[in-house]
Amino acid sequence: MSLPLALGPARPVPLSAVNPVAQLTAIVVVTVVLLVSGDLVTPAVLLAAELALLPAAGLTRPGDVLRRTWPLLLSAVGVAWVNVAFGSLSGADAWVSGATWGLRVVALSLPGILLVASTDPVRLADALTLHWRVPTRFAYGALAALRLVPLLAAEFETIRLARRARGVDAGASPVAHARLLASTSFALLVGAIRRGTRLATAMDARGFDSGTVRTNARGSQLRPQDTAFVVAVVLVCAAALTASVLTGHWDAALG
Amino acid sequence: MTAPAALRLAGWGFRHATREAWAVRDVDLTVAPGERVLLTGASGSGKSTLLRALGGLLDPEAGDPIGELTVDGAVPDRRRQRVGMVFQDPDSQLVMTRAGDDVAFGLENTGTPPALIWPAVDAALDAVGFDLGRDRATGALSGGQKQRLVLAGALAARPGLLLLDEPTAQLDPDGAAQVRTAVLRAVDARDATLVVVDHDVESWLPLVDRVVELLPGGGTVEHGRDWRPAPPRLPARQQHPPGEQLLATEGAGYTHRGSDAPGLLPTDVVLRAGRTLAVTGPNGTGKSTLALLLAGLRAPTTGRVTAGPALTTGLRRPERPPHRWRAGELVQRIGTVFQQPEHQFLTGRVRDELSLGAGDTARAEELMERLGLAALAEANPFTLSGGQQRRLSVATALATDPRVLVLDEPTFGQDRETWAELVALLAEQQDGDRALCLVTHDAGVVTALADDVLALGAAVAA
Predict the structure, then answer these.
(1) Distance (Å, rounded) from C-alpha B403 to C-alpha B307?
(2) Which of A4, A112, B326, B369 is least surrounded by Cβ atoms within 10 Å, i.e. has the fewest?
(3) Domain ranges across chain B
(4) Quick one: pLDDT band at residue A255, thresholds 50, 70, 90?
């Protein structure tokens, strides 16, 4: 399976109407709530709310959802399994602990996936530089580097084939596989640095980071719907915590 | 609004900090406002260094300049806003995810008020004939479209000086023609001075007023519009009758994972000993994919690739198709040369690179001697020039003495000198035992080397 490398939605989706910094604020709120709660109910309620938002991020087909989330699901299963197998609890408690950890991992990461699926990285850079005063050198530099990531994936495949053409393959040995992967990755890194240098020169030639104050052609507006989105997320979090306390499951994870 | 820029170089030269030799020297050149100049010369004659200097992109700490170089009477550093530049590789020049945003990038950097940006973007897109709209994703464009977008980005700020550094070297003939047409359109009104660096003189001659050739030892020669470079010398070669069948595809096609349309339609080809097959056709018809199938590097998704008995002798499992051979077995039988030579280098020394494949050092020494690499035996392959790297990558494929040689765009981005060297080298490989398969856009290579031609494209689809 390929890595989820797509850069923003092909066409705007409903969630694209929410300013990226409002989405980031909501992510901070959700993250804090999940970090302080150690029970099963809080992440379950939040996860349900997040799943309800998937269609708004254009993720309606199960295949699309899986393509975006498979590394995350894999790590959630891993975390849950480690807790069941190696945790201090046994029996049903161990399974509850494992499920809690698995749900927390998914509920913590899914907002990030919603953001990436619904947001053109250019709008994200615009919002960060205009509203949060993130330095333009950093924001647009990172953006330019991000564009190169899908190219790297293609290049990795080419280098792998080129090595086979030179008579180098790993056969059945796992050690040889690891060494081949390391040397292929190194060749990829060398190529990436050279491409990065060329990109920096080209950006330099276009007056990037030349000391002039940069303007922004697109702008980035905060509107009432952005406030409404953050307020709604805060309310959902409050509802999740209330449900957890009322059902007697609440368990503070930190402090 | 801007006026075209005037350039003046007097006794100018530059030496990189880490080198003893001058990259370029003794250049005297005056370019009048609105003039169009092609700057040419062999690889390593300092064309790109000179162009970067004009663009104000040479870091003073990167080396020592000598002599005088001015743009509109001032050092280029102070004229940066008057200059638009386009480099070779479109993918390392685009910044934004959407076409219009990318053209706007340079205007934003110079602090243009947002209200003035979009009209300028639309004008620039129009000037290069880019009609796919501002919202088109940059990642989904062809090479020629990307490079026209890069050109639009350079033109958006209405530069008085347009500098192009081999802008078509990485494009197929269609894309290259699109870019040249866009350049012609953009400078038609002569409101910008144009300097193009390229070794493809013939293609640019109709667009420029004069040609300036940089000489490898320093200094320049001027040529007028009616000048034609000497035609390349083609190697004498011997025709061989078709020998035994070494490799064949039977209805072999390939569809990329997750893609609906096939990358290569089912294709039949036969490679015979003593013959050279050229595979041609526009981008997107699957030429390189066919090369990978023949080279035993990819499995066809339909049809099959079969190797003749002459090739399968000695295999542990001779009934298997080439893509299932072990790498060690493959490299003894089919040699492959990739488009980018550096992808194939595995060691830190030219000598090691060759003895790795040859097994014995005597053959490695012989190859280095024959391919003019002996003096570079201790050099790191990654530090060689483009032409030297190309020769080395062909040498590594020859080191194991394979019966079949598959080459993907072997002459891509080579200057005239290395082109001729490479064609001569490949002609030497056309003995009665070996089959060659060349995937190429280069009509010159086809004329010089091919016995048979397979043109991929609509004909295959029908």
Answers:
(1) 11
(2) B369
(3) 7-223, 245-461
(4) very low
Contact A144 B89 (CB under 8 A): no
Cβ of A158 and B343 within 8 Å?
Answer: yes
Measured between CB atoms, which of A8, A168, A212 is closest to B109? A212
- The helix or strand, by DSSP H or E, that contains position B335, with its residue range, turns out to be strand B334-337
Probe site for chain B from A1, A66, A166, A213 (most B CB atoms < 10 A) = A166
Of A193, A207, A210, A252, residue with least CA distance to B85: A207
Lowest mean pLDDT among A13-17, B249-253, B353-357: B353-357
The shortest C-alpha distance from A169 to chain B (Å) reads: 6
Contact of B318 with chain A, judged by CB distance below 8 Å, is answered with no
**Contact by Cβ (8 Å): B265, B286:** yes
Is residue B462 over pLDDT 50? Answer: no
Q: Pick the residue of A189, A206, A215, A220 with the most B CBs within 10 A to test the interface with B by mutation.
A: A206
3-state DSSP assignment of residue B267: strand
From chain A, pick out residues whose CB is under 8 angstroms from the CB of B344: 162-163, 165-166
CATH number for the domain whose boundaries are B245-461 = 3.40.50.300
The model's pLDDT over A1-38, given as tens digits with 9 standing for 90+, comes to 344 455 678 788 999 999 999 999 999 999 999 999 88
Identify the sign of the CA torsion B178, B148, B204, B127.
positive
**B250 DSSP assignment:** E
What residues of chain A lie within 8 A of the CB of B91, using their CB?
Answer: 148, 151, 195
DSSP 3-state of B361: helix
Q: Does B154 touch chain A (CB under 8 A)?
A: yes
Q: What is the pLDDT of residue B342?
A: 83
Q: Which of A21, A8, A57, A9 is nearest to A220 (CA)?
A: A21
Query: pLDDT tier at B143 (50, 70, 90 boundaries)?
Result: confident
Give the tens place of pLDDT for each residue, B228-247: 888 877 888 778 888 899 99
Q: How far apart are the C-alpha atoms of A113 and B157, rounded to whole Å? A: 37
Q: Report residue B292 as tokens.
A: 């990978």
Please tell me what DSSP assigns to residue B346.
-
**Percentage of residues of chain B with pLDDT beyond 90:** 55
Tell me how far the alpha carbon of residue B295 is from its chain's centroid. Answer: 22
Chain B residues within 8 A of A20 when measuring between CB atoms: none
**Contacts of residue A207 in chain B, CB cutoff 8 Å?**
80-81, 106, 109-110, 157
- B342 contacts in A (CB within 8 Å)? 191
Tokens 């893609």 found at = B259
Tens digits of residue pLDDT in A212-253: 899 999 999 999 999 999 999 999 999 999 999 999 888 887
Q: How far apart are CA A80 and CA A84, in angstroms?
A: 6
Cβ atoms of A243 and A45 closer than 8 Å: yes
Does A217 sit within 8 Å of B118, measured CB to CB? yes
Rounded Cα gap, residues B149 and B233, in angstroms: 37
Q: Residue A162: closest CA among chain B residues belongs to which residue?
A: B344
Tell me whether 0.90 is exceeded by the ipTM: no
Q: CA–CA separation, A37 vs B111, rounded Å?
A: 47
Tokens of B97: 């995810």
Q: Give the class (CATH, top level) of B7-223.
A: alpha beta
d(CA A37, CA A196): 42
User: How much is the pLDDT for A254?
Assistant: 57
B93–A202 CB contact, under 8 Å? yes
Residue B460: predicted pLDDT: 40
Which residues of chain A does B85 touch, with a Cβ-Cβ cutoff of 8 Å? 202, 205-206
Q: Which residue is listed with tokens 């922004």?
A: A216
Please check whether residue B344 is in contact with residue A166, taking contact to mean a CB–CB distance below 8 angstroms.
Answer: yes
